[in-house]
Queue: 3 jobs
Job 1
Amino acid sequence: MAIGARRRAAAARIYKLSSLLLQYPGEELRSAQGEIIDAVGELPRTPAAAALERFCDWWTQTDPLAVAQHYVQTLDLNKRSGLYLTFYGEGDKRERGTALLRLKRMYRAAGLPLQGTELPDYLPVMLEFAAAAPPGYGEIVLREHHAALELVRLSLRERESPYADLVDAVCLTLGAPSAADRARVYKLAASGPPQELVGLEPFAPPEVMPVAEARR
């Protein structure tokens, strides 16, 4: 297998595992804990794999109720670290519907139409698509939302949440954000998404935005 193909395969495994671990940590996910830990242990030794291992160490050593409470407080109830990525750029504006429709069309074009009731911009859904899509499709979807990923990453880092390691792992597969993405992060960090975040505390200054390396 060529180096490029191996890298794509490893990235797909990172996306699949991150997709699972970013979902609500209920009984179904706990029942698969051993299998997930084994899969993480089989990943090539990379910074992204190390980030997943750090999360799994916390996940396996923390009381399940505490994990669930942290998830709800951090990812469900905190608008600065939610997992619906088009919200960061569009908020509740009409344009968000256009962005969601574009994602649905991209999934369909790749032969993987959206199933179920979850929105297409929900990060676990996007990562599941990126893991299974033909070469190029998943990377395009994630790169188009790289700025939003970096904002979620930044917020989780600020909160010292172990879930930051999962977003770290994803961002590490994409490399450093482009100049355009960094400018977008700067803008959104300063003002927040339209409408819904008006009046809420803004993001931290973009100069503390994580670089494309897992934290030690």
Job 2
Amino acid sequence: MQLSRLGTPLLIAAIVFLSAACEKTQTTQLGPRGLGLVQNAKPHDIAMLAEKNKVPVPLPAANPDGPRAGEFYENVQLLGDYSKSEFGRTMISIKNWVAPGQGCGYCHNAPYYEEDTKYPKLVAREMIKMVRHINSDWKEHVGKTGVTCWTCHRGNNVPQKIWFKPNDNDPHGMVAGRSPMRLPTASSGNTGLPSDVLEHYLLGNDNLRIVGTDALADNTNRRSIKQAKYTYGMMMVMSESLGVNCDFCHNTRAFYSWEQSRPQRATAWYGIRMVRDLNNTTLATVATLLPLNRMGPAGDGPKIYCATCHQGVNKPLYGFPMVQDYPELIASKTPDYVPGPHPHSDRDDDEEDEKPVTKKGVLGGMKSKN
């Protein structure tokens, strides 16, 4: 009798476990047949990601006529060239995207809305500049889809997907306290690959090394085992962030070849440089405005990476162009942002694996299905 009582729940649990383990995988072909260019996903994961990437319904369009916000309100340093109604619509939208629980008081000292006494208001200004900069100057990565505050925040004061520099004094953070090989972390795909790759590629300007075309081409060893580990570590970050595997961008029979890569590889190339720009300009400025409790264990401010926007899908919010409903977040009528280095300024022309090609190659000229 006792075994029967215990056996039934155990049997049910076993059936549920096996059913989950044997869940049918959905396969999407990305390139010519025979090359193995496919993406695999489980229906359960697809449903979960669809829930996480829901797009909020935009507020009704505002009247563009009437007094300008900068004429009606005090201390309007951005968006002042839009109408009072357009300005109010944008403010309410930002509140819904970033602070739905706290409301306008999260940034403003009501009823003295013109005051700059709260740090979130100062941060919000920099964020508006950043969003405009992305939508206007980084179209090689965001295209016409663009971004809004919702793309990263998803109703949270601080985006859930951010990173800080690791605290090297933490005995649990590094093996033996000295090795660059950190303990397995989610950011490196739960592997023993380096977990400080974000500092090298998304804050610094290190180039990703993939594979050489010639063995023993020279004696400089520009593609060392150490570089390979860091490259694979960064690729793990991108794979986890976008929910894709290597051949979403690469033809794995020739990682080095741009001509045999998919167009998404060039998009990713610009994405890496966009994130570097933002981490070293906007977010470096934001760090000077934050209280200590917003800083990381090493005393630095929050920074972004691929997952901040993508959150598990290859296009944030599945490519829904939210920004089309908020043209004031695309560009200002007067310049308000000093951009970082030109997207092409750090290109290493000696490295084939670091230089996107525009000519149509074996796969580069294909029309993408995703």
Job 3
Amino acid sequence: MIDDKLMSDLNDKFNSIGQDLETHLKGLLHNTPLTYWDYIQTDALLNLQIRRSSLKDEMVFILYHQVNELLFKMILWEIEQIAEEENVTASFFSERLYRISRYFDMLSSSFNIMGDGMDPEQYLKFRNTLTPASGFQSAQYRMIEFSSTELINLIDIRFRNTIDRNTPFKHAFDHLYWQAAGKDYKTGKKSTLLTLFEERYMDDFIVFMQKYNTLNLWTKFKDLPQETKKNLELQNAMRHYDYTVNVSWVMAHFNAAMKYLSADGKATGGSDWTKYMLPKYQKRIFFPDLWTNEEKTNWGITNLEKLTPLDSSLNIE
């Protein structure tokens, strides 16, 4: 026997959206049971892997990067929750940041799959079929950066003094740190890697940058009440996320790549990957005011895995 209150609640729900409850109940008569494979769309997922060579380990490479993209989607989902929350509390902010950090911890540790899980000889052969494609072209990862911090913190360190909040988004975009992977600033010439990436995503990126100009994690934090900003749990969550993304994950990526490529070698897209990837060159820091001057000077050089709370000497406005 169906509970009367349940029926009343269902009736109120469908009335509120201008729908007839009885019609929906009749529809249930023809529903089929939900299965795991239908809910997860297993068949679709398992048919998205298309190799471009006959080499077996290429499948490992494809699946690994597809898993990365799924985790990036989870990260963006969490960031969006913070961005859209009107009255953000320290606990809400911290909880979402630690969720995101756990996803990046998975990403960092998973590089062993590539570093130790592919035959180098096979990789050095099938990578030639991938040119000019590159993991550099992950649009979701760029969106994670845009939604994490203010644009100034993503500008190539050589040009930060020439960029401010009044700079047009397109100009800022042209001076983002990762442009160095495919652009000669003296001639303005761009690599095929960068040109194809911009043709596909630049317009979307500009819209996304505009949206998160005031909703990024760093701006959301700075807009919090002073008392909330001094919450040590939140500060540590911010610092942990910042270091995990901009040092731990990046260095795990770099070290995995070094097993297959020499430090002066080129990535599949032809980029000089050491110059734009390594933290010590670009000093990518999402939340600069949450780090001491010494920590920023030694960013990517000194091991800061054991993060400590900020002390009172830092004035967080």
